[in-house]
Amino acid sequence: MKRMLINATHAEELRVALVDGQKLLDLDIERAYREQKKSNIYKGRITRVEPSLEAAFVDYGAERHGFLPLKEIAREYFLQQEQGRKRIQDLVREGQEIIVQVDKEERSSKGAALTTFVSLAGRYLVLMPNNPRAGGVSRRIEGEDRTQIRQHLQLLDIPENMGVIARTAGIGQELEALQRDLEYLKQIWQAILDTAAPRAAPLLIYQEGNVVVRALRDHFSEDFGEVLIDEEGAYHAAVQFMGSMMPKMVHRLKYYDNDVPLFSRYQIEQQIESAFSREVRLESGGAIVIDHTEALVAVDVNSGRATKGQDIAETAFQTNLEAAEEIARQIRLRDLGGLIVVDFIDMESPKHQREVESKLKDALKLDRARVQLGRISRFGLMEMSRQRLGASLEEASSEPCPRCNGTGQIRGCEATSMHVLRLLYEECMKAGAAEIECRVPVDVAVYLLNEKRRPILELEAKTDTRILIIPSPDMVTPHYQIQRTRVEGDSSRAATVAGSDNSTLPARPSRPPNESAALSPLTAPPPPTVLPPLRTPPAPSGPKAKAPAKIIPPEEGILARLVRALVSRYVPVDAATFLAETGGAEPPTSTEQTSEMGTGTQETNSEDRNSRRRRRGGRRARARRSTQGGENTEGTYTTEGFQDKDQLAGPADDAHVPEELVYPGTV
User: In terms of one coarse class, where is the protein primarily found (predicted)?
Assistant: First the structure.
């Protein structure tokens, strides 16, 4: 059974959901902190006429002036009768007062789109009081119903200067009900004229009803078994509206009084949450991904783990069919408008493509907005255009991220540091720069003061400019601020020369005091507890000896390993013996012994066993040297294979080991 659920327990947010069983069909949310202006009627004043745009800008009381195209200006407001093609500056003038209606809400940096062709929506009819050429029957009414309602419209008492459009709710209604709805709309229009005449612009004349009234007027039909409302005030307002407009349906209104929240009772909270998600999972294992751009909305269909078909072509076809129905549902829930492009999974069969197109077209019939649907192109893309009824769910409930400004990506710490460093170079090279103060996030400051301190010190000495790197706990990458103090004669003047957008906005909570890391300027000696000074590196002692590459032992068979284990076992010796046999090379460190001796060192755990092996190994070593050419052998065998003595030798005494400067403390 279809139900209309109205959740009004919180005054800040009023939600209306249309459900079929436990499946969410449509959703409408009205927020108290975001004023709804669409369909409101104002008395405005033309503030500017722009011939290049063939439009006028109107002050109707909002922060941004509304945009009024020439084609949306009724003839009754023209200064002279139109003869041929006239310019807009000849038809209207600045300061002229007109009655306008908001056709499209404000969006991002664009003001609201206005029209002078007012439309008043009733239960069964839409009245166009100053547009006699408009009128007819809704496009969604077809067949015999269309013929019948046309006959009723011809019998209505419609004034000559007005037009009427029959709505889908008027199907099957008697002539008396349609006439009563028309009289109600005519009274509203007369009240609008009476209110606007004596008062000056800008002025709000008529305000569209709240979401409860709009839902009952636009969505309720005999298909709905009941309307559940969980707030007493909203329930009484709905009863009053239904009593005047649809008295026979008042009994379907019910007050919901239960401890379990209304939306949780019908398990639709999770479905509402999916409308805020970028990715929506399908039952077959596939998914659709919805991305918003400035020009269009992109919808991508992914097969994911879908295994519904017998082969890859059938799997793609079944996934696309399931995705088509879910895409139509998500478009309604999110109230997406404008150009929408769907990237389906590639299908080779034209028959499959036509079936997917038909599936999406049928699913979009439930949409109350006008939708123009294209066909799947050879690239697998389908284009559609949907009427923008208002702000989308994302626009109405979210705001741009203050850190990334809505892009979704930011520069990393290293990239931001290098960008700031290049700006420092640029500012230091300018004439008259005495001091440059750079406020950056803590992690960027740590990177600059540790990894790039030497280039900054050299820049200070070269340009005779003092550079201060100040970490700001309230800043996050990629934000920064650079201020230069310039010397002019005997005075100095400070000016902010560079900075990122929203660099002064705290995008995250302040760090605790022990993590603030207040670093001192580079030219002053820093406190030892905060940042140690750069350690002076030792003087270079000539070119370093290149370490020999590690020799990878060749693979051996079982017999070779057995012979090596019995005959060529490595015997550890003391330092004196090692120096005598290797020609004075330094003994390897314990780490090198562990890595080079392999299994030979792992078997020397007992002191008695070592002494016995040393005596036995000495005799074998002397025997091997005699068979290999005497005592001047330049290498030795180990369990890792043959190694030169240079590999066993430690690093040279004069080799310089670079020191790494690490910022102490947690950042």
Answer: cytoplasm
Q: Which residue has the higher pLDDT, 485 or 117?
A: 117
Q: Pick from 469, 497, 472, 464: which is nearest to 483 by CA?
A: 497
Asked whether 54 and 70 are in contact (CB, 8 A), the reply is: yes
Under 8 Å between Cβ of 215 and 47: no
Amino acid 21: pLDDT: 87
Among 595, 466, 596, CA closest to 520: 466
Q: Report CA 367 to chain centroid distance, whole Å.
A: 26
> For the segment 444-460, what is each residue's pLDDT rounded down to a tens digit?
999 999 999 999 999 99
Q: State the pLDDT confidence band at 309, using cuts at 50, 70 and 90.
A: low
CA distance 323 to 333: 15
Domains of the chain: 2-33+212-266 (3.30.420), 40-208 (2.40.50.140), 278-397 (3.40.630), 413-486 (3.40.1260.20)
Tokens standing for residue 580? 């005598």
Residue written as token pair 């389906």:
344
Give the DSSP H or E segment for 88: helix 88-91
Query: Which neighbouring-strand residues pair with 46?
Result: 58
Q: Cα 416 from chain centroid?
A: 21
Q: Quickly count: other Cβ atoms within 10 Å of residue 54's Cβ.
A: 13
Using the structure block, give the residue that is written with the tokens 């029209």. Answer: 115
Torsion (CA) 205, 208, 210, 215 in degrees, nearest 10:
160
Quote the CA–CA distance of 257 and 423 in Å, as a whole number: 64
Cα dihedral: 390, 395, 397, 403 (round 10): -170
Mean pLDDT of 32-57: 91
Position with higher pLDDT, 247 vs 659: 247
Distance between CA atoms of 573 and 610, rounded to whole angstroms?
A: 9
What confidence tens digit (pLDDT) does each residue in 410-436 have? 899 999 999 999 999 998 888 777 889
**Predicted local distance difference test score (pLDDT) of residue 134:** 81
> And the tokens for 29?
């949310």
Mean pLDDT of 22-32: 88
Q: Taking phi first (over 0 means left), then psi (-120 to 50 degrees means alpha), and beta for anything else, what does residue 95 get?
A: left
Which 3-state string (H, E, C) describes 18-82?
A: EEECCEEEEEEEEECCCCCCCCCEEEEEEEEEECCCCEEEEECCCCCCEEEEHHHCCHHHCCCCC
* DSSP-assigned states of every residue in 415-464: HHHHHHHHHHHHHHTSTTEEEEEEEEEHHHHHHHHHHSHHHHHHHHHHHT
Cα-only R_g, the chain: 40
Q: Say if strands 466-472 and 433-441 run parallel, antiparallel, or are unpaired.
A: parallel
Which tokens sit at 257?
């009084």
- Sign, CA dihedral 240-245-248-250, equals negative
Q: Return d(Cα 140, Cα 142) in angstroms, integer.
A: 6
Helix (H) or strand (E) holding 155: helix 143-155
CA-to-CA separations, 207 to 64, 81, 130, 164, 219, in angstroms, rounded: 19, 32, 19, 21, 19
